[in-house]
Amino acid sequence: MNVTEALIADIVHRVMEAGDFLQGDQPFKKERDPSGITHIQVSTVKCEPFEGREDVRLKDVMTLEEAPRMGAGVMEVDHTDFEWTLSYDEYDMVLEGTLEIVIDERVVCGEAGDILYIPKGSHIHFRSPDKARFAYFVYPADWQ
User: Fold this and answer.
1) In what order do the strands lie in the sheet with 71-78?
2) What's the CA gap between 7 and 14, in Å, rounded?
3) 14, 26, 50, 56: which is deepest, by most CB within 10 A?
4) Is the CB of residue 120 less than 8 Å from the CB of residue 86?
5) How far apart are the C-alpha atoms of 45 and 10, rounded to whole Å?
């Protein structure tokens, strides 16, 4: 078998299409166009435990260098109740499961495809009767 440039290119292309590889230090697939437009394949995002909890997991998908005004990530809550006070505005788009936002003993419920907006200063509980996965978008990005 002759190893040609075309054969090597074909092998590299097939490996890249198969996925499960890292782009730089990112544990998910993300491509940035020279224009600044960024494509993130949310299905490849692997969330990590938040504050040592296994029932609350998340992964920021944009850095401050890439997007200094808005932040974005993916969060998973699994049969849990997680208290939080927002120092930023947040949109959540439910990807899977049921996400409940509890505020002042009221429950706002979102299911797959729904978008929830939580204003800055809200003291809430993220709650889920099942395993929920959602994308979050925050403003400002440097909220800490």
Assistant:
1) 48-50, 53-60, 71-78, 131-139, 89-96, 115-118
2) 11
3) 56
4) yes
5) 26
pLDDT digit of tens for each residue in the chain (144 aa)? 677 777 666 666 555 554 444 445 567 999 999 999 999 999 999 999 999 999 999 999 999 999 999 999 999 999 999 999 999 999 999 999 999 999 999 999 999 999 999 999 999 999 999 999 999 999 998 876
Supply the CATH number for residue 76's domain: 2.60.120.10
Domain count, the chain: 1
Dist CA 53 CA 35 (whole Å):
37
Say which amino acid occupies 129: P
Cβ–Cβ < 8 Å for 89, 96: no
Q: Is residue 18 part of a domain?
A: no
In a domain, 40, yes or no: yes
Other Cβ atoms less than 10 A from the Cβ of 143: the count is 13
Task: Say if 14 falls within a structural domain.
Answer: no
- Contact (CB, 8 A) for 55 and 81: no
